[in-house]
Design brief:
Elements: H1 8-14, H2 28-38, H3 43-66, H4 70-87, H5 98-115, E1 125-129, E2 132-139, E3 149-155, H6 162-176, E4 179-183, H7 189-193, H8 203-215, E5 220-230, H9 233-241, E6 249-253, H10 260-269, H11 285-296, H12 299-313, H13 318-325, E7 341-346, H14 355-361, E8 366-371, H15 386-401
Parallel strand pairs: 3-4, 3-5, 5-6, 6-7, 7-8
Antiparallel strand pairs: 1-2, 2-4
Length: 402
Amino acid sequence: MTAIFKDELHDQLGTWPLGYIPYGGADYGEIEAIARAVGDGGDSDFHDAWTAAADRMMEDGHRAEAEGHRASARETFLRAACFYGKSFHPLFGRPVDPRVIAGSRKQIAAFERGLALSEVPITPRHIQFEGNSLLAYVIPAQGRAHGVRPLLIFNNGYDATITDLFFASAVAASRRGYHSLIFDGPGQGTTLVEHDVKLRPDWETVIEAVVDFAEALPNVDPRKIALCGWSLGGYLAPRAASVERRLAACVADPALPSVADGFRAYVMRLGASRDEAANLGEMSAALMERLTQIVANDRKLSWSVVKRGYWVNGAATLREYLASVENYTMDGRIEDIRCPTLFTLAENDTLAAGTQRFFDALRCPKTLVRFSSDQGAGEHCEMRNRSLVNRRVLDWLDGVLD
């Protein structure tokens, strides 16, 4: 793929909204203009360029609203929310950068300003979970807000925010006639930034509370509630489905049977034996030191493991982090998934390395949908052709939930 941003990490993070173009989250020219503004700059320049663009959108939105252009104001506020959400990603880590907190708050304020201008105004909801409150929004089916419809619960992964779920999945689902529920779980979005609640492997406990909330919603058919997870959500959603029997279907994009296996394969390439790599938290000091140096000297690895991973997982060292990811495994649980399940598998997605093995082990009604680079959908979560994966998944859900 041709890079838009000069820095590799900036390109990884800054091109995510390309997938939102069909759903009003961005336009190509806007992303390209931000990349030019960042140029050879660092993470602060990345933050400032996205924030400045979002600030301009907020001004445009307020002007449109004052002039009575409700639709334009809604679209502009929602787009500003997407841009604020992108601004602070390179700044992840502990101690939490004040710009992360400010950006998250601006994102949510813009998002709620836009949702309030919907044909049926959408307001924030709160799901009670173990003494915490998980921010959530119910996005109604387009033109059928008051009709009884199936509900799709969209589940985030490691670093995406609630506006990512909206543009990546909920808008398409709404157009297709589904109600959607999007939320910030432990270790995600506002639950992490505002409340410092860490990620957890036993995601069935989270989804139990979410489904309890969903069943109490008006206009939702409780027999037709599906759970759809993307990125790390491709582990979290199947993990929940292995226990939560109220789910009518599960989607994993892609399916991850183990978070640790990717690290395990890497340390084996460094020379570790299978036995030495069997428990990453107990690796030898020499191997751990070597891996620590590799991570420290690789900007993308350092961001994903040290800045993001330590913060989200609540770890202080690489050994603690690797010990924690060993808990994110479907070992002994795959056969417990009983609802119809769909897995995606993108051709060039390294995180999908275990998807086929996971799929083969399923004993429930199952479907595997492959995506290729010649479709423009070969990368992680098919972000360069998000509309294609949405069509495939929603077609499948139409059949399963009919």
